[in-house]
Amino acid sequence: MPARQRLPLLAEREAELSTCAYCPKLCRATCPVSDALPSEAVTPWGKMTSAFDVARTGKLDAERAELAWACTGCLRCREACDHRNPVTETLDDARADYVALGRGPASVLQLLERREQVEAEHAAAVTALRQQPGVSPTAETALLLGCRYARELPDVARDAIRLAVRLTGRPVRLLSGCCGAWQQAAGARNAAQASRERLAGELRDTGSRTARLLVLDPGCALPLRELDPLTLVELAARHIDQLSVASGQDKGLRYHDSCSLGRGLGLYEEPRRLLSAVLGEPALEFAFNRSAARCSGAGGLLPVSMPDVARTIAQRRRQEHEELGGGTIVTSCASSLSLFRKQGVPAADLITVLARGLVPDG
């Protein structure tokens, strides 16, 4: 018999859970996970209903716990919901409760066991990038690259540094802290909050003033809203006059709306204007774009909790891309970029494309 467990955090989400539990499932077609894995249990309705049942009955088993991680956090179900129900945030609360009880996918729990090592690797990667031109430990403008960019995509991180320095006209200070996004998605609520608090402290300069915060990864900007972050996409949009059509720039670029930049931050037109500025023409589009854009499968730690499903979702985006004529996918999400490339899809980061279009000095 499943163990009976009391979940105090889930009690705070009773309204959100019941809204989904008694809904006629209009959002089922929006979820990339249930689209790739046909199962009622992994629809937004199914995941929320499962958490609702656990919260009401206290009955928790491994299978129910793992359902909370069958979500990329793409927010597409929220767009289809008349109530704009916060499914992602509610499932994050469920994950935190389940992890506190020692439940969750084994792969996620193993990742949490290596949390200190992962954070140390990120700090070391940032330290190496501090050797780049334009980086200064005393700069008033701080730049947060994001864990994935610093550790796995240092080429994009270098482009981001160059772009930030050129557009602001001043040096930047690289932050080694973490926004806490991946810890939150893993179910480590306290660790995520501690990471954000450390980052806020690091943001203060020696004069006890809070530095201006620029952020490369939109997925980091979302949990740091209290610090008033400015994404590099927004910064570039403010200085679009410093961008021009780059010679030799590939024209066959198809823009993929990242979930964090688009549905999360509401930035749809800015990246399109920027791409037009450096391409000399609008970028190609997916059939489903802007608020209806389909997820790459890379968010919410899905590649860790359900790697086969994540690959299936990415392969479907690849198929759509090829059916529309192929070319190179441009995205503003580090996780999407990595997953696309692992599936053999030609992919580039939006920041790299913009950096190529910087107007030459002088």
In total, the number of strands is: 10
Beta content = 5-15%
Can you tell me the overall shape? globular
Low-pLDDT parts are none
The percentage helix is: 40-55%
Total helices: the number is 21
**Strand pairing plus helix content: what structural class?**
alpha/beta
Number of individual domains: 3
**Biggest sheet architecture:** 4 strands, parallel
Strand order of the largest sheet: 4-3-5-6
Overall mean pLDDT stands at 92
Gap from first CA to last CA: 73 Å
Notes on the structure:
- The structure is a single chain.
- Helix content is 51%, strand content 8%.
- By secondary structure, it is an alpha/beta fold.
- The protein has 3 domains: 3-104, Fumarate Reductase Iron-sulfur Protein, Chain B, domain 2 (Orthogonal Bundle), CATH 1.10.1060; 113-237, no CATH class; 240-356.
- A 4-stranded parallel beta sheet has the order 4-3-5-6. The protein has a 4-stranded parallel beta sheet with strand order 8-7-9-10.
- Strand 5, helix 14 and strand 6 form a beta-alpha-beta unit.
- The longest helix is centred in the C-terminal third of the chain and has 17 residues, at 307-323.
- The N and C termini lie far apart (73 Å).
In short:
By secondary structure, this protein is an alpha/beta fold. 51% of the residues lie in helices and 8% in strands. It has 21 helices and 10 strands.
Summary keywords:
single chain, about 350 residues, alpha/beta, Fumarate Reductase Iron-sulfur Protein, Chain B, domain 2, four-stranded parallel beta sheet, 10 strands, globular
Topology:
Layout: E1 3-4, H1 8-11, H2 14-21, H3 32-36, H4 44-57, E2 59-60, H5 62-67, H6 76-80, H7 87-100, H8 106-113, H9 115-129, E3 141-144, H10 147-152, H11 154-168, E4 173-174, H12 181-186, H13 189-203, E5 212-215, H14 218-221, E6 230-231, H15 232-238, E7 253-255, H16 260-264, H17 269-279, E8 284-285, H18 302-305, H19 307-323, E9 328-331, H20 334-342, E10 347-349, H21 350-356
Parallel strand pairs: 3-4, 3-5, 5-6, 7-8, 7-9, 9-10
Antiparallel strand pairs: 1-2
Helix pairs in contact: 2-4, 4-7, 11-21, 15-17, 17-21
